[in-house]
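[audit] Reproducing an earlier prediction to check determinism. Same input, same settings, fresh worker. If the tokens differ from the archived copy the diff job will pick it up downstream; this log only records the rerun itself.
[audit] input (194 residues):
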Amino acid sequence: MKKRVTVIYLEMCKRAHLRRKAAPTGVKVQVVKVGEPSPTLNQYFFRTVGLPWRWISRLNWTYKEWQSYLQRPELHTYMGLVNGTPFGYYELEQSTEEDSVQIVFFGLVDEFTGRGLGGHLLSRATSHAWDLGAKRVWLHTCTLDHPAALDNYKSRGFTEYKRESVTEEIPNQKDSMWLTPRFMESYRRHSRKS
């Protein structure tokens, strides 16, 4: 099925523009850099975080493709833990040509949304991007993303610099990859909110 999607590009050009959000009180939150490239871990986060939002770009990647992608020195993966349980992740990619860092993927496992963790994790992602020596941190989102995503980016200090409308091929949700009980429950819950 083809669908028109609006892609929104955001950037932060000075570290001082970052408006940090603290971790929620009463829980132990850690953000840990993944020290060894793990195709299985990144694939898990990509599928678990992304399927409710129709992240499809890497669904068919092989282990070798994930390995090639993750072994590049400019790619950094971090995961968030709340009380020892993984709740989300982000990937940062440095570009030496542009002196920029892109937040390539960012998101939370569905059952951890709405608990104040997203703002804190994005604060940490942005701070880590600046720590890599960026002169600009950027990302993009789209109208298929979580309803709170764009507000979170803007609340942390990102500003929109471009929008474009594209046609995306969205898989039929009757395909087997979409029919896991967790995905279907998450999709139903978010469809009712829209």
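[audit] rerun output stored. Observation attached for the diff report: Residues 2-193 form a domain with the Aminopeptidase fold (CATH 3.40.630.30).
[audit] end
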